[in-house]
Structure formats: C-alpha cells, structure tokens
Specification:
The chain is α+β, with helices and mostly antiparallel strands. It has one domain. Helices cover about 30% and strands about 20% of the residues. The chain is built from four helices and four strands, in the order βαββαβαα. The chain has helices at about 25-35, 85-95, 110-120, 130-145; strands spanning about 10-20, 40-50, 55-60, 100-105. It has a four-stranded antiparallel sheet with strand order 1-4-2-3, covered by helices on one side. A hairpin with a 5-residue loop joins strand 2 and strand 3. The longest helix is centred in the C-terminal third of the chain and has 15 residues, at about 130-145. The protein is globular and about 50 Å long. It comes from Pseudonocardia halophobica.
C-alpha cells in the first residue's frame, strides 16, 4: 500500500521533580526538540503528589517559575489522549511530595523511515527501549576489555 500516512513511534515519559526544582532548562530543551521537528508533542500533563499520597493534576497557568514552571510554554498541549486512569497509573509511580510532567510525544524524526518501511511492504516486528544507563555500562565494560593493560 504505497504512500500510507505514517507517524513515528509514540512514547510517553514521566519526569519527576522535587517541588522546588528549577525546570527551566528542561522546558527549554523540550521546546528545542519540538522546534527542530524531532518530536511532536501531543500532551503535557502536570501532576502533584502530596506527602499523604493523594495526587492531582495541575493547570500550567497555576504554577510559578519554581518547580514545574519550566514547562509553562506548553500550556494547552492537550490532545485528549491522556485520560484520568493514565494519570492515576503514573501517580502511583511517583514519590510523595513531588511534581511530575507526563509527556506524550511522537518521535517525529522517524516518520520518513516508517513511511519508507510501509511503502516497501515492511512492518515493525519488535521494539524495545533499552535504558541509557544500561547501554553506557555495557560500553564501559567493552572499552575496559579492549584497553591493553
């Protein structure tokens, strides 16, 4: 089926911060990825988990520059794909007394590759994210073995 509409892989991340963290650089880095068409942002939801374990969504218009305020430029980034049950599930992962940004995004850089694969009759058979620390540790082990003593 040539010329299918293609999209890059869709991922989410949950970024947890202390209430008083300075997240300006984080928001700036995300904005840079969006501007360079590396990612396409679908949703950015802010969650606060209280010391007693209760949680709530936070409107980005209600935050100050401290804490999660570095993400205020993304106010209104709501596609409707994140639901209350998603927020409940990720809030369970958060530590009490923290705030988090739940970000749903498309790896937009991959869309041309996905389109080419589909046009060639290919399909994705498997995919898995390998945590960066695991890869870095493996590279360090390989480099240590390759270094002459």
């Amino acid at each position: 089926m040539p010329d299918q509409i293609s999209a890059g892989p869709i991922d989410f991340v949950l970024l947890e911060f202390p209430d008083d963290a300075d997240t300006k650089a984080c928001g700036d880095a995300l904005m840079d990825l969006v501007r360079r068409d590396i990612v396409r942002l679908y949703d950015l939801t802010v969650i606060r988990k209280a010391a007693d374990g209760s949680y709530s969504g936070i409107d980005l218009t209600d935050v100050t520059s401290a804490g999660i305020g570095g993400f205020t430029a993304f106010e209104g980034a709501q596609s409707g794909l994140i639901h209350d049950d998603d927020v409940r599930a990720v809030a369970e992962l958060m530590r009490p007394g923290t705030m988090a940004a739940l970000i749903l995004y498309e790896n937009y850089w991959a869309a041309p590759l996905v389109g080419a694969v589909l046009d060639a009759g290919g399909e994705l058979v498997a995919s898995q994210r390998i945590p960066a620390p695991d890869v870095l540790e493996a590279v360090e082990r390989l480099e240590a073995v390759a270094r002459p003593s």
